[in-house]
Amino acid sequence: MDLGEEGVANIVLSRIEKSFSEEKVLKGIDLEVMDGEFLTLVGPSGCGKSTLLRIIAGLETQDSGSVRIGERLVDGVRASDRDLAMVFQSYALYPHLSVRENMMTPLRLRDLSVAQRLPMVGRFMPGAAEKLHLMSQAVAETAEVLKIEPLLARKPGQLSGGQRQRAALGRAMVRRPVAFLMDEPLSNLDAALRVHMRTELSDLHRRLDSTFIYVTHDQAEALTMSTRMAVMMGGEVLQLDTPSRIYADPANRRVAEFVGSPKINLLSGELDNSGRVTLFGKSLQRRVLASPQEIAVGLRPEHLTISDIAEGDEIVTAQVRHFENLGSDIYLHLSVNDGHETLTVRSNPESAAHLSFGDQVRVAQTRGAAMVFGRDGARLRFEETLDLAREVA
Amino acid sequence: MSNRTAPLWFVGPAVLLMLVILIAPIIIAGGLSFTDYSLGNDGARWVGTKNYEKIASHSTYTKMLRSTAIYVLTVVPISVALGLGAALLINSLKFGRDLYKTIFFLPVMAALLAMAIVWEFALHPTIGMVNDTLAAGCGTLIQSVFDWGWLPFVNGAETWYGHACANNEFPLWLRDRDYAIWTICFIGIWQGFGFNMVLYLAGLTGIPRELMHAAEMDGARSAWERFRLVTWPMLGPTTVFVVTISSIRSFQVFDTVEALTSGGPSKTTYVMMYAIYEKAIKQNLMGMGAAITIVFLVFVLFITLVQRYLVERKVHYA
Hints:
The complex is a heterodimer.
Chain A: H1 3-6, E1 11-20, E2 23-33, E3 38-42, H2 49-57, E4 64-69, E5 72-73, E6 84-87, H3 99-111, H4 128-146, H5 161-173, E7 179-183, H6 191-208, E8 211-216, H7 219-225, E9 228-233, E10 236-241, H8 243-248, H9 253-258, E11 265-271, E12 276-279, E13 282-287, E14 293-299, E15 304-307, E16 314-325, E17 330-336, E18 341-347, H10 349-352, E19 360-365, E20 371-373, E21 379-380, H11 383-392
Chain B: H1 6-32, H2 50-57, H3 59-91, H4 97-109, H5 112-122, H6 129-137, H7 141-146, H8 160-167, H9 180-205, H10 209-217, H11 223-234, H12 236-251, H13 255-261, H14 272-282, H15 286-315
Helix pairs in contact in B: 1-15, 2-3, 3-9, 3-12, 4-9, 5-13, 9-12, 9-13, 10-11, 12-15, 14-15
């Protein structure tokens, strides 16, 4: 129970499998969550991320595999004995209790004996007064951290979404668990508040110095908050790494497509015997070590530029189809090959100002930014990067 | 039609109907309760509050209030508790939910009058299966279990069952003044708790699963703790509704009394609805019947007001 203080509360999942009726939702997940890190499980809905979180929590039992919290194997240990706290998407506050009583509940259930918990007479049991004093002190401290002191007397029904969110966080924080599990806690908030809460959660994580396991379908949340993120799809972890590495160096096509908004451009190309990549009839300088096949070349919108003058790096001529103005940036949606393929290009408002719908533009790519994915979706490395990797290793 | 009169035309029909079929009869009943009117008489004598004084003082009406109170105070808590218990048990099942729901709901669907006749046979003192079964149990393991002789400080021969076996004397369930009202209560519970169970089952489906999980994460280890922390508070609105409906239905008990005991023996099962029927219809004492009806109305109104208060103040959290 006091693993938190020892500071070795790594959460280790090995070979977790789970099926619902015939459908396999988790296919042998191996994952190690380091003590104190903010790990995000991110993926499209139905990828098994929530199930995985609930298995860690103990609310669901895995079919096979094991969960270890610190030194302790917790398979068969029930949720209430795992010393984890969870924040739910719906907040799951007890509607008949005030915020203070909501935050008291985990303390009451854990720290008070059955006799001390009796209604009316419980508080007069030996030792109860002292414990109750400590408990309300803990609640007051937590409320101060979350700035919800004025709300303590209110019922959840009288709170706004953001305030409920804080109250739910407070209930989780108040007993200082080994780790916090969060199941899409920001999904029910409006867009502005969601962005604001991202900062607050990161801040809170830094201050509490505790392990957060965070489930979301929103790649932006994962990128902004995590220490590391695990991209899950179809019951598997496709890639586990820091947000910047996942973004810059996705392990396969599905990860590349999922992470980043707007989506990465995937353009069909050819790979020949000599490892030369051909895209729109032009070849890239770097070579790929793989058998000849049809490939997809990934280029993020910020790695493409539009240019009026013919320069060496231009790859294709395209037609402007749509402007997506975000104020600071403009995303140009272009069509290539008579609309068979589309491209999204990030541009600054100044250079896009003179463009209008239907204009022809030349698109150039930033050197060294292209990623190549094979027919099966696996990332095909360029020769130089392979060398680089070796040097680093 | 001006804008000002339009609303009157819209609400007019509803108000008129309500006046004619609800309000007016109540006012007329209220008026009649101060007279000695009988159906067929040309006029009636104004008797003031004499009818009400009778209800307060006359032993027949004291017995009426007593038996109604016994019935309501027995049937409501037990049928609500059984309904909740059955709903919780059924809700925890993985298989066979529908089967149990059907079984417990059958008495609600069956015509009570027909069922009363079945009970009359089952409870018949000599040929009824209830007493037959009890008699057959005498001298066997059944007796040694149910005369409670195995409990410390209990003498099996002196308990109810031990005594009945020793004298081979089983109760006249519907003819004995010590048993009749309780037998009627039993049938009322048997008939009514399935309805409460269905209401509670509906209430249980409205409890968010995440709330249960939150309770589990917060350390509510036992089913009882989760029940106290989540289930019971969340069922608050359902409970208020169930208690109100059960109370009103219990005040209205009539079929079983009419079919099985006709208010007897010694007016121990003389419940209000039966009294209204007997006074107003059978004996054609409309004034008296109207007075009992008004008392009845006051009780039901009181329950309804309590329900409104509870629903608005205590059990809706949003």
